[in-house]
Design a protein that fits this description.
Layout (H helix, E strand, L loop, with lengths): L8 E10 L3 E10 L4 E2 L3 E4 L4 E7 L1 E7 L2 E6 L5 E2 L3 E10 L9 E5 L6 E5 L24 E9 L4 E14 L2 E10 L4 E10 L4 E5 L2 E6 L2 E5 L6 E2 L4 E9 L7 E10 L26 E8 L24 E5 H4 L8 E5 L1 H4 L5 E9 L6 E4 H7 L7 E7 L19 E3 L10 E5 L5 E7 L5 E3 L1 E2 L5 E2 L10 E7 L4 E7 L9 E2 L8
Parallel strand pairs: 1-11, 22-26, 23-25
Antiparallel strand pairs: 1-2, 2-9, 3-8, 4-7, 4-10, 5-9, 6-7, 12-13, 13-14, 14-20, 15-18, 15-19, 15-21, 16-20, 17-18, 22-27, 23-26, 24-25, 24-27, 28-29, 28-36, 29-33, 30-31, 30-34, 32-33, 34-35
Keywords: Signal
InterPro entries: CBD2, CBM2/CBM3_carb-bd_dom_sf, CBM2_carb-bd_dom_sf, Expansin_CBD_sf, Expansin_CellWall, Expansin_EXLX1-like, RlpA-like_sf
Protein name: Cellulose binding domain-containing protein
């Protein structure tokens, strides 16, 4: 590559989100000199980038702690006074986030001026606009208060246009959006009318331009504008500006989550009831975990780990709606950023809970990828309790139409009667044993979703059980042996009706 002014290339490394074992990071490359083409960048770090979880570049080689990356198609060229960004997920080293060192662009270590932005506990998105030097900012600004109605809430934001530079054949401008909603503004887009042709834009994307009617949407790294935050994107275009952008129309989704502020970790939520309602739209945050190797073993629901191909169907719910394991086995429809961009919602089943979250889900990595890009790390989601149809096949290979599945517990014996249920259309409220005299004895729900008969008296052979869902529906499971020490599943054929 032939490059001038290589000493004017600089980088910035920042951490966007982090979780217990890893983090999402952003490496910005700014070109303050002449055009850069067909570049590569190398750096040293003890962290390991997760396979397939890098965006904006490809890994050419990794030898020990030395990485060499090359650009992808859209950023092979970095124009003068422009930049590009590389995003990736990586592991922590001994519980710490380590920054890359010895960053070199095209084997010229003197070309890099490196800035390290220290990681923080919550999302950090460094919005960098490279302003032209030795030019006065022209103070031509539109200051508009936008109120746009969405499904449930109003979007209140200030949208400002500033003409940074104006000359006969072109211009540079920037637009800032200040989120005044009091919640997180997610998946935003901005419409406006502007007669000038925009030929370059950064920190945003042009979704549509129909004869000067623009639709501008977020970039991959700034989908969310938190409460009170101001986001700015810049652009250049043709011809001198004689008529500024007008008719601003801001769209997006507003989220008021308990875990939306300083930390995603919360233990109380006054706005969320523990009892689930069918079809009610809930809002919250979503993160992801390795469901194939859960840190807590099988998870609080006690279900087996699904096959790799079925991991996209399972999640851990928050500590409020877990409700003493009552949510175990429940099915939810989930929508995230990808669904707000047009993808179909996904269906997941609760198999665990996240004790330090008071809204939303900790999703399997495979489920998270269906609602958001893994680089996002933490996203806003909508979710609701649903009733799967008879033909829905769960992560454990049974269709709902086959009926409730009794999971065997190999520790049971005549003096320890216990049962665990799966494949039920709705969450379970209670399980009762029918005695020989026709009376009902309620089994106690334990923390790992077992229903246990209290009392030190023996049971032998099959027993009839009455299972009640959270809506009061009851089914009877006949001749179920809950003391035989077997881990085999029993497919009952009995299922709750659709409410």
């Amino acid at each position: 590559m032939q490059t001038s002014n290589n000493n004017l290339i600089r980088t910035e490394f920042s951490v966007k989100t982090e979780w217990e074992q890893g983090f999402s990071a952003r490496l910005d490359i700014f070109n303050e000199g002449e055009i850069v083409e067909d570049w590569t960048i190398e750096f040293q770090s003890e962290f390991e980038i997760k396979p397939g979880e890098i965006w904006g570049a490809e890994i050419v080689s990794q030898e020990g702690d030395l990485y060499i990356l090359k650009p992808v198609d859209y950023n092979e060229t970095i124009d003068s006074q422009q930049g590009t960004s590389i995003f990736f997920n990586a592991n922590k080293v001994n519980g710490e986030i380590l920054s890359p060192t010895s960053i070199v662009l095209n084997d010229d270590s003197s070309a890099i001026k490196q800035t390290i932005i220290e990681p923080v506990e919550e999302e950090v998105v460094e919005q960098t606009v490279i302003e032209p030097i030795e030019e006065e900012v022209v103070e031509q600004t539109i200051d508009s208060s936008i109120t746009e109605t969405t499904t449930e809430e109003e979007i209140e934001a200030d949208v400002n246009f500033t003409l940074v530079k104006n000359w006969d054949s072109g211009f540079e401008g920037k637009i800032s959006i200040t989120n005044n909603t009091g919640g997180n503004l997610d998946s935003w887009s901005l419409e406006f009318d502007f007669p000038n042709q925009i030929n370059n834009i950064w920190d945003a994307e042009i979704e549509e331009n129909a004869d000067g009617s623009y639709v501008i949407t977020h970039a991959a790294w700034n989908r969310e504008i938190v409460a009170g935050e101001t986001l700015t994107f810049g652009f250049t275009g043709n011809n001198s500006v004689t008529s500024e952008p007008q008719n601003f129309d801001l769209d997006g989704s507003v989220f008021n989550s308990a875990s939306r502020s300083d930390s995603i970790y919360t233990y109380s939520n006054d706005d969320l009831e523990s009892e689930l309602e069918l079809g009610r739209e809930y809002q919250g945050r979503a993160t992801f975990y390795d469901a194939a190797n859960p840190a807590g073993g099988l998870g609080a629901s006690g279900y087996d780990v699904p096959m790799q191909s079925e991991l996209h169907k399972v999640v851990a719910i928050n500590n409020i709606q877990w409700n003493g394991s009552e949510a175990s086995g429940g099915f939810f429809e989930v929508s995230g950023p990808k669904q707000r961009d047009g993808a179909a919602p996904i269906t997941v089943q609760v198999v665990d809970y996240l004790y330090e979250r008071a809204d939303g889900f900790d999703m399997s990595a495979e489920a998270f990828e269906k609602v958001a890009d893994p680089i996002d790390g933490v996203v806003n989601i909508e979710y609701k309790l649903i009733a799967p149809g008879d033909d829905y096949v769960t992560a454990y290979g049974y269709s709902i139409g086959q009926g409730i599945v009794v999971e065997g517990i190999d520790q049971t014996n005549p003096y320890y009667a216990a049962v665990r249920l799966n494949n039920h259309r709705y969450p379970i409220e209670s399980v009762d044993l029918i005695t020989n005299g026709g009376n009902l004895v309620q089994l106690e729900r334990e923390s790992d979703n077992r229903f246990v008969l209290e009392g030190n008296y023996p049971l032998y052979g099959g027993q009839d059980l009455v299972v009640t869902d959270i809506f009061g529906q009851q089914v009877t499971l006949d001749d179920i042996d809950i003391t035989n020490g077997s881990s085999a599943d029993i497919v009952t054929g009995e299922q709750f009706e659709l409410v």
